[in-house]
Amino acid sequence: MEEMQEMNELGAGMLYTLEDEEGNEQEFELLGEMEYQDAVYCALIPFYEKEEEMLQDDGEFIVLKKEMIDGEEMLCTIEDDAEYEKIGEMFIKQFEDLFDVDDDEA
């Protein structure tokens, strides 16, 4: 996923229309942003207009990195698996702290 084309404020987060390598577009909602080692990362989940579709989703989020390409800010795939895992874990910790998740309650 590469392209950040459109941003709208709806509901809780900003919406991004992302385009994958095959040219397919899908809307994602921003869960959070994090700065780490001079880079900015975004956690996003698929955006669904219908509640039923949202409930059927697996709830996993994606992590993309903001980069400047040709003078335009873009959300780019993180190619390094270790970097992706580290940032993903940092977002999970941030969300757990934010929502005060207790593993013993599961």
Description:
With 106 residues, this protein is α+β, with helices and mostly antiparallel strands. Helices cover 24% and strands 42% of the residues. It has helices spanning 51-56, 81-99, and strands at residues 7-10, 13-19, 25-36, 39-46, 62-69, 72-77. A 6-stranded antiparallel sheet has the order 1-2-3-4-5-6. The longest helix has 19 residues, at 81-99.
Strand content: 35-45%
Q: Strands of the largest sheet, in order across it?
A: 1-2-3-4-5-6
Distance between the termini: 33 Å
Percent helix range: 10-25%
What overall form do the CA principal axes indicate?
globular
Topology:
Elements: E1 7-10, E2 13-19, E3 25-36, E4 39-46, H1 51-56, E5 62-69, E6 72-77, H2 81-99
Antiparallel strand pairs: 1-2, 2-3, 3-4, 4-5, 5-6
Sum this structure up briefly.
By secondary structure, the protein is of the alpha+beta class. The protein has helices at residues 51-56, 81-99; strands spanning 7-10, 13-19, 25-36, 39-46, 62-69, 72-77.
Keywords, separated by commas or semicolons:
single chain, 106 residues, alpha+beta, 2 helices, disordered N terminus
